[in-house]
Amino acid sequence: MVSAVVMGAPQQPLEVRDFPRPELEPGAVLLRTLGSEVCGTDTHLWKGQLAGVPYPIIPGHVSVGVVAEVGAGAEARDVSGRSVEPGQVVTFLDVVGTCGRCWFCTVGHATTRCPQRRVYGVTLSADDGLLGGWSEHIHLGPGAHLIPLPDSLDWRAFLATGCGMPTALHAVTMAEIQFGDTVVVQGSGPVGLCAAVLAQLRGAGRVVVVGGPANRLATATAFGADDVFDIADTTEADRLEAVRELTGGRGADVTIEASGAPVAVPEGMRLTRDAGRYVVVGQYTNVGDATFNPHLDLNQKHLEIRGCWGSDVGHLHRSVQVLDRYARQFPWTELISREYGLPEAQQALEDVLAQRVVKALIVPRH
Amino acid sequence: MVSAVVMGAPQQPLEVRDFPRPELEPGAVLLRTLGSEVCGTDTHLWKGQLAGVPYPIIPGHVSVGVVAEVGAGAEARDVSGRSVEPGQVVTFLDVVGTCGRCWFCTVGHATTRCPQRRVYGVTLSADDGLLGGWSEHIHLGPGAHLIPLPDSLDWRAFLATGCGMPTALHAVTMAEIQFGDTVVVQGSGPVGLCAAVLAQLRGAGRVVVVGGPANRLATATAFGADDVFDIADTTEADRLEAVRELTGGRGADVTIEASGAPVAVPEGMRLTRDAGRYVVVGQYTNVGDATFNPHLDLNQKHLEIRGCWGSDVGHLHRSVQVLDRYARQFPWTELISREYGLPEAQQALEDVLAQRVVKALIVPRH
Amino acid sequence: MVSAVVMGAPQQPLEVRDFPRPELEPGAVLLRTLGSEVCGTDTHLWKGQLAGVPYPIIPGHVSVGVVAEVGAGAEARDVSGRSVEPGQVVTFLDVVGTCGRCWFCTVGHATTRCPQRRVYGVTLSADDGLLGGWSEHIHLGPGAHLIPLPDSLDWRAFLATGCGMPTALHAVTMAEIQFGDTVVVQGSGPVGLCAAVLAQLRGAGRVVVVGGPANRLATATAFGADDVFDIADTTEADRLEAVRELTGGRGADVTIEASGAPVAVPEGMRLTRDAGRYVVVGQYTNVGDATFNPHLDLNQKHLEIRGCWGSDVGHLHRSVQVLDRYARQFPWTELISREYGLPEAQQALEDVLAQRVVKALIVPRH
Amino acid sequence: MVSAVVMGAPQQPLEVRDFPRPELEPGAVLLRTLGSEVCGTDTHLWKGQLAGVPYPIIPGHVSVGVVAEVGAGAEARDVSGRSVEPGQVVTFLDVVGTCGRCWFCTVGHATTRCPQRRVYGVTLSADDGLLGGWSEHIHLGPGAHLIPLPDSLDWRAFLATGCGMPTALHAVTMAEIQFGDTVVVQGSGPVGLCAAVLAQLRGAGRVVVVGGPANRLATATAFGADDVFDIADTTEADRLEAVRELTGGRGADVTIEASGAPVAVPEGMRLTRDAGRYVVVGQYTNVGDATFNPHLDLNQKHLEIRGCWGSDVGHLHRSVQVLDRYARQFPWTELISREYGLPEAQQALEDVLAQRVVKALIVPRH
């Protein structure tokens, strides 16, 4: 039997349940889970803030495991086309089922908007099997996008940034940072921290983080942020003035929103300079409206705003390369505040909700 | 003496005044005006809705004239480097003084945000001379950006689209329309009509115009719009439903706002499909705020929004080429509803304000 | 039984053979062929100039047919997700098997370089069934990318441009033509002619076609080319001088190679202005090397060169929209020189080889 | 009097001559030179390999000085609009005279192709004054683009990369490196070394340098290159095989040519993967032709090639920000092999020619 954490319904206590070990289809893969992250999405799931979630679910979308078994009759291949073998340490794209045939997949080239896509730990039901990472084993059907971790990359280092890294990598790619740019990041959770790191790996001239609480801002500084502003201590006017002072009166060349607060969006428009770029990646759930001035905040500013949704195989694959290559420079594992066993998952969720931790991992004790 | 229309102050009647014929600096140019457009900006100027206007001014920013004289001691050269000679029919960029030295000019490559730029007919004072187009003559200092009209291009055809064409050309360029895209244009004034034409010259698969009144929508149809919706007859919900029906439920690939109404902006976000693009060019004055939902209208949509401000030499130069090349296909002069002499300028302004005309020209009778 | 043209081996006479009507897999589609184009690729196939071709093959990659049957047990859906029903007139992407899983599909986002892709009429064998268009029926497996033709689009109009249109649409998209640009197209076959048309649907200010023979150049002129140069009558030096004269001495803003001659490539670099763009789409087979000067022809010119290979669902889908929308402007069917029955396929091939025709169609008589 | 090094004619020994201290125009600036780089261009100048050089010249294009005097009657302003005052340490763009009015400046937005541009130390004559950096003082006319060095940036650190940094920054910007990409740099001179550093500041997953001699490759490794290949020890076939092995058989995602050898260009095409990007920046002089296969090396590869010429104010400004911000990570001054006084300039030139040094500086002893 396989133990897994189940979220039966919003606001209900998590439970550990036993599942039968699955029969594998040809080319399917069973992972023995090394770890799985706890992410802000998991708190949204628990609060019931996401539509279309087929509770009960096994949470956990970004995970790492050892290949325990490959379903007989077909090979499993990684993204580079190599055969995947038992004993390998791999991660996988949490998104499955992207159809490759619909208008968004083939004409729009916007695969993160494919209506067929489903997400491990989010939109796949525990009734259908081990389809989430907070579990001793994870069942990956044929065609899952498998990415081996390089030997030089500690699996904890990979999980330390969790889905924050591919999400931020997508956002920072869309931000088109130029060498020497001043980049403001709104939000200091995992996505914001990763964006602040990645801005440095695009040659930003100055990286400013607006967020809180203090422990997260201290982490931002430790990971290279040049300036931090705590939203608890400063007003929007303070931040506007500070950013303008840092930029010769112009404002940020690029701003990246990773906060989740609607009010951050018009502030971000104003923090950005004329003809600058603003990427909004943090508005993952609907928590209300925002008001702005189309003339002053958008048109006269010649401002570009890009909403950024989801991530694809490329973002995850590139995240692995970046985490591996720049581990000499950034001590990823220091982002992990605490590891929790399966029975401690409820505690993990509450610690994340209370922002007592930067990154929490679920690590099944096998 | 030279007669010119003077707008002495907001809301005051226009007057025709006499000015001395100017002494030309070396390389300066004196134009004998053939015509000058009346544009929505002129109505904003008259209502006092623009900041930083040094009344009294001679209105008229996009104009055509015959070169009457070149200031002795230096050549005047056009944008292609050829000498400009008396007798040539030319237009010129209304924007002058862009410094080429500031951060926006040299590092930001956003010349339309250069703080030194001034605009003929808008931010140059009648106290400083013949610096607007509603005048028998126009005084262009050394270094003005001169663009000859090709012999094959009627000057009235050029003025028929006025500053709407370079403005729309800038916006449509930023819209990055792909072949076969469905393009929605919000607004049916000169910028919107030009955008609807230019969308066809980007290979759009369908062009939809949302605006009014009926005479402008009829013009849109005559110039190739596939569908028009009158805002007087339809609600936002009607328009959303109609556009979705035209696009297999997805929404417009590209939307271009050229209406000036703040409420059009959140509507435009919703009219656009997931991963589509929205260009906002019409919010030229501050007439209030707008409210939107950052999660639904921006982030989850993976929407790109681009504010578009001003136009540069390239936009005007390219407009001349397009007007000339595609005159066989689009009967530009039909956009001109009426021509007015200098003493009729007040009437022209009122006709534009009341939307009784599509395009009005000021044509001095020499 | 189903009659189809078979190319048994390079340089061997084509034959008409009978095939059994196939059993359809669930969701597969059998088309009754209305027509299929004869394209330059077919002449390359017959001359044996392409590697990896599994002779015998049924030629014909871009085709139109009526849905005769859908394999029971699953729906067939078009690119927009709608169910495809018997009686509909559809085309389909000739490329099948793109895997959606390899590095090029998922990380590189370069699906035309997916190693799994196969092409109807080119890299699929007649031993495996009705997998080419010069046949009374065409067998499309489950998952083929089906695109219905709009009622307003004559199937002959669609076939008149054949695979030239999606190929040119890909190239012209990569060319990033700006409004008013001077565009030179090298080559006046179907790809070149389509590129010359599409350049006008990007708002080019002038379209110049370099090619031959005279009948094709006459077609180019009829389809809107502003200038044509016959390579039989002019030298490279003549053409360089002529293009510079047309462009104020600068050269073309954009050049598109669609000729297939290696020597055209260095000439194209020189025809293009400094900081211009050059798209090479016509070098479909290896017919030798070319020599250029890296300093003068590339680096000092600040030239951008883009090789363009293959086309995807989006290019075909957009081609259908463009052909339909702009049929009022371009008389597509006039490109068809002659239609041939299946037994006349050899003659069709020879007429294309001799450039006696612009576009030849194979039209089975049912 | 002011001492300066004069290159009287190609292949003639350099001399130190005395010049009168210049009278300054209003807003002009006289710098007391702190240092000026010796660059490969200076060796080309001395060998007479560049066209249009108005010998005699004072060499030295990238230089740093202290503001000694500002011409009375007008302010001198830096790129950010601040007044420049005596005592400040500044650098300046070597390019002056870019007209801001021609087609390339205004329509083409390709200012590095403006025909009016002149370059300090290259295309300005010593007969016209102190217009090069190998001099005790440098005379900057009104309108020169001045960029102050931040207090935190040692002027030697700035000069250590010389014009290699803005040149490489331009090239790497055009290379559009994505996170995790494998980047191959051809050439290990200052431009190549800077490109290898900047690739890391774009988040490359692996940086490979192909060049020589051994001391430069050792520097490349010290500055973070993951792999180096000495062209003296390896063949093109060796390098192709090695790069393919490092990239799962695909080739480099991005290749940057900074070698100056024509034969490097076709090799670079082959080193790059299908649908990859190749930037050619090193072919600064005409030293012969190259041969390639348009089908295999360009079209079928779907390869993008970008020639990169010159640099502008933005590239220099951004270079200063990057050198300052990432000085904690890269020990710039270690690139300086030796400093030479004015009388030693001939020796400096010969050491650079013989590749005995990585970077040589001319440092006048005041």
Automatic annotation (TrEMBL), chains A, B, C, D:
Entry-linked Gene3D superfamilies: Medium-chain alcohol dehydrogenases, catalytic domain (3.90.180.10), NAD(P)-binding Rossmann-like Domain (3.40.50.720)
Entry cofactors: Zn(2+)
A Pfam family recorded for this sequence: ADH_N
Domain of life: Bacteria
Enoyl reductase (ER) domain sequence ranges: 8-362
GO molecular function, one term: oxidoreductase activity
Keywords: Oxidoreductase
Descriptive protein name: Zinc-binding dehydrogenase
Organism: Prauserella cavernicola
